[in-house]
Structures are given as C-alpha cells and as structure tokens.
Amino acid sequence: MSEHLERVLERLDETTDAALARLFTFLKIPSISTDPEHHPECRRAAAWVADDLNDIGFDARVRPTDGQPMVVAHDHSQPGKPHVLFYGHYDVQPPEPLELWETPPFEPRLADEEGHGQVIIARGAADDKGQLMTFLEACRAWKSVTGNLPVNVSVLLEGEEESGSPSLAPFLDANKDELTADLALVCDTGQTDAKTPAITTRLRGLADMEVIITGPNRDLHSGMFGGPAVNPIRVLTSILGQLHNDEGRVEIPGFYDDVAEISAEQRAQWAALDFDEAAFLGDIGLKSSAGEAGRSLLELIWSRPTAEMNGIIGGYTGPGTKTVIPSVASAKLTFRLVPDQDPDKILSAFKQWIEERLPADCSVAFKSRGGSPAVGFDLDGTEMQAARAALAAEWGRAPVMMGCGGSIPIVEAFKTTLGMESLLIGFGLDDDRIHSPNEKYNLTSFTKGARSWARVLAELAA
Length: 462
What we know:
Blueprint: H1 2-14, H2 16-27, H3 39-56, E1 59-63, E2 70-75, E3 83-89, E4 109-113, E5 117-121, H4 129-146, E6 152-158, H5 168-174, H6 176-179, E7 183-186, E8 198-203, E9 205-214, E10 220-221, H7 222-225, H8 232-240, H9 264-271, H10 277-282, H11 297-303, E11 306-314, E12 324-325, E13 328-337, H12 343-356, E14 363-372, E15 375-376, H13 382-395, E16 400-404, H14 409-417, E17 422-424, E18 440-442, H15 443-461
Parallel strand pairs: 3-6, 3-7, 7-17, 8-16
Antiparallel strand pairs: 1-2, 2-6, 4-5, 5-18, 8-15, 9-13, 9-14, 10-12, 11-13
Helix pairs in contact: 1-4, 1-15, 2-4, 4-15, 5-14, 13-15
C-alpha cells in the first residue's frame, strides 16, 4: 500500500493543472440554491459532478428530490475492506453584494495574495466545491494509478445545504440501506491555520425558544395607565437580565449538569495554538470576553454551552414616539449545547425558570422548533487514529483536535438516521471569506487537501 500511495501522491502533483481546470469548470456554474432563478443551474451542477464521478470510475447518478437533486455514486470494488460515505454539497451562497467583488464571482481565477501565496477566487471556491473536489481528485489519482480505490466508497452530494437542506432528511430516510456505511467523511470544515491540519472532534448542538409575555389585553396609553399597569417589556427584560450571573454563567438550574470538562490533552493542545484572543475580539470591536470567567476563548467557543438572546420585540418601534404600554413583548433565544446535553431537557428547564419568575397579571406562551443535540467523537477510535496518522504524515505536524462552535446537522443525521460516526476533515481557513465577496481557497489547501485524502483512504484501508 505504501508503494502505491507514493505513486498516487506523485500523480496528484503531476496533474494539478488538470485538477484546477476541472474545479474552475465546476465553479463557473452559479448553483445558488436559495434563488429559484438559479435552480436550473443547480441541476446543471449536479449533472456536471455526476459526470465527473463517472469519469473517475464511479457508478454515479443524479437522483431527484422534491427540491434540488442529490448526486449518489458508488465504487464497491474492494470486498472485505471498509466502506466510507463521503458527503459534500454543490450549491453555493448568493454572491451579493456584487459591487464588492474584484472580479465576477463565477469567473474563477488564480491570484497572489500576501500571506497566502496563490489563491483560487470564486464563489464556492472554499464552500464547498473546492473542498469536495479535493476528495474527488484523490479518488481519481488512486483509480488512475492502481485501477481501484483502497476502500469501498460511496459519495453523497446535495444541492440545498445553503438553504437549510429540506430534502436531505427524507432522502436519507428513504435510502438508508444504500447509504449506510462504516464511516462518514465530511469535508465542510477547516483548519486552525494554513500550515496545521485539523480534525473537528466536537460540534455544538442547537435549541431555540421564543418567549411571549402578555400583560394587559390591549396596548394602553402610557399617561392614563402608566404606573399601575404591568409592562410586558419591563417584565421580559427583568427576567432575561437574570439569565446570566456576573461571571457569565447561565443561571438556569441544571444547565451544566451534563457538561463534561475537556481532557487535559485537548486543553493543552488548544492553549498551544497561535490564537490571538485580543485580535479575535478586536476585529469585532470588543476588548474583553463576556463568557464564563476563567475560560479561554477557544474553550468557550468549542466546548461550553451558551444561552443567547437573538432578538426582542415589543411595543412601538417605528419612527417618532408613540406613548404606549404594550400588551405583548417577546424574545427569541437560542442555546448552543455540548455533548451529553439534552435539548428537550434544557428547553423544559428554561420554560420552568421563566414561569417561576412571572408576576401576577402576566401570562407566558412559548414557541420552539425543538433542537438537535451536540456531537462528540471518540479521540481514541481506530478511524480517528488512522486520520491523525495520515494528516501528520502529509503536513509534518500532528493535527489539531479542534472543536466547532456551530452545528453541522448532516453529522447528527448520519448518526441518528444511518447509525454512522463521522470524520470531519476539511482544509478551509477562517480568512477564506466564505459567504462574503471575493471568497478564496488557498491553492495549498486544494493541493495538500487532495494529498491528505489520498493518505486517509490508504490508512483506513490498513
């Protein structure tokens, strides 16, 4: 296997220009899933990537859904070897505001940028076309050198990730037998810096709640009723003002009951990263952390739960003044959760906490879409160790076992619907300007990303 791997890596180096040409063709397709006018382009992107997979040697098909199509491909030519399912998405964010792009967003180009070297600039370069093509190019090199892949591979590419993935859950449920594998590979993640590989080992979950407090049965004149009439805005803000203590901890009883501390190894690794907390906060106009006292910023973002108010509505908010005491005030909140926290338990505790603080003459109603739990992965698992070895061999340094402050719903779906664990390996960077004008993907992210996947497949086979 090691002899084959060296030839595969050489093949990738020799064919970089051809790989970039394929990527540029893909990037030219404006597959914007949120815009109905571009839905034909989404279907064109699905057809293009299916053709590319067939050219590599997969059996690939474009599969219809109620929304944008899925692309499903299989290569099961290695009996007895592990079976992996690779996931990515071919849709992209809208490019607006167009006037801030230095060149048209769907005319990809190579450019030299200080501190980055050569970069690929186009909408979708990093999110997610460049990322998913690193895996496809690794597969192409293996097939061209040996005629086979090291392991059995299925591919699932969706076209609605940037618009909430409405078709994904029904598709997974309807095709469980076909899509279930030993392990899922997800590329829609990144690295801590351009020279250090990373594996995302934990994702925060998410739960939402809207609180609606009603006082008087109609809006009231603040001169005629001000004083004796309860004001729902005052009640709401008074209660929410108690949600955190002076040290940044959430005051809901039981909120931290199921929150585990990270290992000493992870804490030491995160502390050793070249992460400038002052610069991180300064970039958004802040000077000090408002989170739990005594925690590093990376620890707060990657491994601690939160309760955040996302919006408050009440009374008159138009121009000028309208002297009313409103009948209703509401707030929308979200909770970012960590592994082992139960979204339903957290939401139930929050509702009880609100109700216990509600004064007489006020009623409360709640609206929620529920939540999804956080995901954590076994750092000592066989697949994780294989990936760590592969990345270390390619980059010359051990990968960072990083966290992610956000959520990737597909990972939870793979676990709950298909019963699969995932490996989250990507090569994007925080400064790739995804979702923003002049999105870029470092050329080294693309080339070393493909080489990394070639090594990961070899390690998984071993």
